[in-house]
Design a protein that fits this description.
The protein has 200 residues and is an all-beta fold. It is 3% helix and 59% strand. The protein has 2 domains: 85 residues, SoxY domain (Immunoglobulin-like), CATH 2.60.40.2470; 107 residues, Sandwich (Immunoglobulin-like). It starts with a helix and ends with a strand.
Amino acid sequence: MLAFAANMELVPSTPIPKPGGEITLQVTGAPGGAQFSWDFDGDGRPDVSTTQPTARWTVPAGYWEVTVDVRQGGRSVGRVSAAVVAHADVGAVRSVQWIAGVAEVTVIVRAKQTVAAPGLAETIPPGWVLGTVEGPDLFTAHGGTLYVLWSTILDPGAEVRLRYRLHPPAPGMAARLLGTVSGYRDGDRVEARVAGRVTF
């Protein structure tokens, strides 16, 4: 059963919709004949149950950690989750892949309106060591947080990308990442949480 859990992933059609937008969520890698309990709002209670690995959801404004409990034969075979963030002005999506025992984290920042001086703050898990940082014009790390800044203006649909590496304190260690993307629209600061992969 644990082999299924290791291969499953929750994939939103978009993790950064506009508020009130409808998305499709899909669990990939689930065993045949499984049942799915979907918790959209993170309150620990299922909002809907399905026999198919997909569900549709109209996303309210804000940050949401969607979790799906996958069951087969009355037993849980795994839980998968992903962060979905509905914001009108800006969005950021995180992905993580392991390369030779090192976590390579990629964050793509996308403007939905014209946004100046996009920035990002990402937590560094306790005990993990920050390695190479690629992409931003400026960056610094202190107090367990990586801060980055791009000295540019993003038009709607434009993107910038951050890639950095995290070295775990021991092989097989799990971690949780949290981050915030920010920028300025018409002189006012806007910010939103980072969507996508949260734990790895």
